[in-house]
Automatic annotation (TrEMBL):
InterPro entries: Metalloenz_LuxS/M16, MPP/UQCRC_Complex, Pept_M16_N, Peptidase_M16_C. Belongs to the peptidase M16 family. This is Insulinase family protein. Residues 58-187 form the Peptidase M16 N-terminal domain.
Length: 448
């Protein structure tokens, strides 16, 4: 299993007949969509890939759903437990069957959703459907196995804490957020991870609460017989009858003053500098997520004046970047610099601040905005060369937006962004009272 750090569910009528949605300029492949009576959304994408199929299961639960005190990190932890077996297929048997067909099989958890994915021969699709339906309906594991895996997750945390990125994420999130679960990382608070071996009973509650058909979308992409696949899907997943729990996610109050946080990193690495502003949740009915996607490239991409000045000309920084991927709830838009030398921190901060203020003043390069929009679209299309690529992109956007066509609609929104919207967005959100600044200074020397 691996973890990726780096778009409301459209409910179709029960037993909706499959419909082929025509290709659009933004997404070139038709989606066949059914929703079973139990709420499971099943999306099939025929793709010219003789003998190959990708199978993605999206469960819309992530660390944002961890609202109980002392129970952070469970979405990620439970991803591990989903590989532990059932009465029909005890632990290890699923792995052997999947390996016998040659499937590449894995999973990942984000703040907003969890994805299970397999990629391999169409000849093994029937077996895979039965295995997947069985574990999502009938997962079983004993307390000793649970405790063992909890220790493995603790080991994963210890491995990650040797990197400055985890500490940066923890400290930035904990400073910028005071109430919302985004204040902890997907791994969770360290004290909660240490206490996980004692939470066996809660783990069963977590499974019943979130692993439900009405909170899950399947994406099957590649070479397969659609009618045969749907017959088996209905047979295997049809009896799955749990219902999604209603749990209130705390709303983060407005930030009213600038916040700062600092990390003294105990070993050698390069200094870091991060500016982060609170921004709206992703939605397909507004252009907020699309604006932020364009803004990330506009301010920190390789065609940006910041990149030209800081990376190419003055060579003060090794890299600049922006965290802009869509999130289900209000989150952060960041500008991050990896500095070559601590002495240039103030100058880099000034350059970041100047670029944001220039944009807010109304100075915007229309031609570059249009070029960025085209680059986002064509860059995605170039990445859709295999069923696994298509499955990943569709799954990611479905996890955020909750609808099978989230990817196409998000791309359509990006194409509609107007240059003046970048200006108004910067004026509204990139204010000092909405800003959190994180700085990281390494041990003497400041070199990796």
């Amino acid at each position: 299993m691996h973890r990726l750090l780096p778009l409301l569910l459209l409910l179709l009528a029960p037993a909706l007949p499959a419909t082929a949605q025509p290709s659009t300029e933004t997404f070139p492949y038709p989606l066949k969509v059914d929703r079973l009576p139990n709420g499971l959304t099943v999306v099939r994408v025929p793709f010219r890939s003789p003998g190959l199929v990708a199978y993605y299961t999206v469960v819309r639960v992530g660390s944002r759903n961890e609202v109980e005190p002392g129970k952070t990190g469970f979405a990620h932890f439970f991803e591990h437990m989903m590989f532990k077996g059932t009465k029909k297929h005890p632990e290890g048997e699923r792995d052997r069957i999947v390996a016998s067909y040659g499937f590449d099989d894995n999973a990942f958890t984000t703040d907003d959703f969890t994805v299970y994915h397999s990629y391999g021969p169409s000849a093994g699709l029937d077996a895979l459907i039965e295995l997947e339906a069985d574990r999502f309906r009938n997962l079983e594991y004993a307390e000793p196995s649970f405790r063992t895996e909890a220790l493995a997750v603790l080991g994963e945390y210890h491995k990650n804490e040797s990197l400055p990125e985890l500490k940066m994420e923890e400290q930035l999130s904990g400073t910028a957020f005071k109430v919302h679960p985004y204040r902890h990382t997907t791994l969770g608070f360290y004290e909660d991870i240490k206490a996980m071996p004692e939470a066996y009973a809660y783990s069963r509650t977590f499974f019943e609460r979130w692993y439900t058909p009405d909170n899950t979308l399947l994406f099957i992409v590649g070479d397969f017989d659609d009618a045969a696949v749907m017959r088996q899907i209905r047979e295997q997943y049809g009896p799955w009858d749990r219902k999604l729990a209603q749990v209130t996610i705390p709303e983060e109050p407005l930030q009213k003053e600038k916040r700062t946080t600092h990390i003294d990193w105990p070993s050698s690495t390069l200094p870091r500098h991060v500016l982060a502003w609170h921004t709206p949740a992703a939605s397909l009915t507004t252009t907020s997520a699309a604006i932020q996607a364009v803004l990330a490239a506009y301010l920190a991409g390789p065609t940006s004046p910041l990149f030209k000045e800081l990376v190419l000309e003055k060579q003060w920084v090794e890299s600049i970047s922006s965290d802009s991927y869509p999130r289900r709830d209000p989150s952060l838009f960041t500008l991050t610099a990896t500095l070559k030398d601590e002495q240039n921190r103030a100058s880099v901060n000034d350059a970041f601040t100047r670029a944001v203020r220039e944009l807010a003043s109304g100075k915007v390069d229309t031609a570059r905005v249009r070029a960025i929009q085209s680059n986002i679209r064509y860059g995605l299309l170039m990445d859709l060369e295999a069923p696994n690529d298509v499955g990943l992109q569709l799954a990611w956007c479905a996890g955020i937006f909750g609808t099978p066509d989230g990817l196409a609609r998000h791309l359509q929104n990006i194409s509609k962004v107007q240059p003046e919207q970048l200006v108004s967005f910067a004026r509204r959100y990139f204010a000092d009272n909405n800003l959190t600044v994180l700085t990281l200074t390494p041990a003497a020397g400041g070199k990796p």
